[in-house]
């Protein structure tokens, strides 16, 4: 799963996570005339945000390199990039197979540099390890759009766009806090992601900071899983055994949440509410059905990959962002971590990933 810059480097906050940066780029990135706009929706590619605006520009070749799609969210990242690129007659997308091996991914990016693509979009398997290849591309005059997992140096990219891990935890905590604010001696537990990842630390920190505003709520347990169904089920079973009573669960990831829900069902527990994270379609379906403990999920939208394609095209064609006075693309764009509940799930379902 992704890592984003520390909170002090959050750039431009979008008002909603479901609509990608394409909505903000409406005045500068489209080759679809307004009278032929479409609002056709799909489950995984964020196509609910219509592309509208200017005429086709110069032909642009975008190189896209990401890690291996071994997780639902990462697979949705690739789908979003491909889908958005197809919207543009003036964009050719060169996409790599993806690898979690940093040396292999560096080699893939080097190949794209050798092909002299106009702009690169890179979601690094390891931001620090791939910083040098980002610096090389920038030195050779190829702008880099750094997607989500941040490079170690801002000189390695022209624009960073990604999710808000701290904001995920913060908004999960606020939602739970508001639901439990009138309950005396409320208890919550946390099913985190991979503790070695900075993103996990940020999600936990945001959650803990939110709970500071609710003195009646105490976090009584935390268990780290591995972003898989199997780990979610095993770690959740341990939490349920150890905690006979609690009022809410914050689960960092909807993929491991599938396993967590299995463990909860097997234990016959219905005495608490659960908040997930990322925005999987399975989670949104469960929220809409309202037949389980899962009542909300906090988005970490894979539509950011579609937005990265929009931004890459605009940078290559030397365009700015519609609706902003500046002539240049911002240096940093942080997406908002919206909370999806039964009240608004229909709005966000088209962005849910499998």
UniProtKB/TrEMBL annotation:
| Domain named Periplasmic binding protein: residues | 62-318
Its main localization is other
Identify the keywords attached in UniProt to this record, alphabetized. Signal
Q: Where is the composition biased (Basic and acidic residues)?
A: 32-44
Q: Which Gene3D superfamilies match?
A: 3.40.50.2300
Residues of the region (Disordered) are: 29-56
- Keyword Signal assigned to the entry: answer is yes
Location relative to the cell:
Cell envelope
Q: Which family does it belong to?
A: Belongs to the bacterial solute-binding protein 2 family.
Q: What is this protein called?
A: Substrate-binding domain-containing protein
Q: What's the source species' lineage? A: Bacteria, Bacillati, Actinomycetota, Actinomycetes, Kitasatosporales
């Amino acid at each position: 799963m992704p890592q984003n810059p520390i909170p002090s480097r959050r750039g431009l906050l979008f008002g909603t996570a479901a609509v990608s940066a394409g909505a903000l780029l409406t005045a500068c990135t489209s080759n679809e005339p307004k009278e032929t706009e479409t609002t056709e929706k799909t489950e995984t590619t964020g196509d609910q945000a219509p592309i509208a605006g200017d005429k086709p520009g110069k032909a642009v070749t975008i190189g896209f390199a990401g890690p291996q799609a071994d997780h639902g969210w990462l697979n949705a990242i690739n789908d979003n990039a491909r889908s958005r690129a197809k919207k543009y007659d003036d964009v050719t997308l060169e996409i790599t197979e993806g690898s979690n091996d940093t040396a292999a991914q560096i080699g893939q990016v080097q190949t794209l540099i050798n092909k002299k693509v106009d702009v690169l979009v890179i979601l690094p398997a390891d931001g620090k390890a791939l910083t040098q290849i980002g610096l090389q591309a920038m030195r050779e005059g190829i702008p880099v759009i750094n997607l989500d997992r941040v490079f170690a140096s801002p000189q390695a990219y022209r624009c960073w766009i990604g999710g808000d891990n701290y904001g995920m935890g913060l908004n999960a905590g606020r939602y739970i806090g508001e639901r439990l604010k009138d309950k005396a001696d409320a208890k919550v537990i946390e099913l985190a992601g991979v503790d070695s990842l900075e993103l996990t630390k940020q999600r936990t920190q945001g959650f803990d900071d939110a709970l500071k505003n609710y003195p009646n709520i105490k976090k009584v347990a935390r268990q780290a899983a591995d972003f898989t169904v199997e780990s979610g089920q095993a770690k959740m079973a341990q939490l349920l055994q150890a905690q006979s009573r609690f009022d809410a669960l914050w689960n960092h990831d909807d993929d491991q949440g599938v396993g967590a829900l299995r463990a909860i069902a097997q234990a016959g527990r219905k005495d608490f509410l659960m908040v997930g994270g990322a925005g999987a379609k399975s989670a949104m379906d469960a929220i809409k059905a309202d037949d389980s403990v899962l009542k909300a999920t906090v988005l970490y939208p894979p539509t950011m990959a579609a937005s990265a394609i929009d931004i890459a095209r605009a940078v290559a064609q030397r365009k700015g962002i519609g609706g902003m006075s500046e002539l240049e693309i911002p240096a940093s764009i942080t997406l908002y971590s919206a909370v999806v509940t039964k009240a608004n799930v229909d709005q966000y379902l088209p962005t849910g990933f499998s």
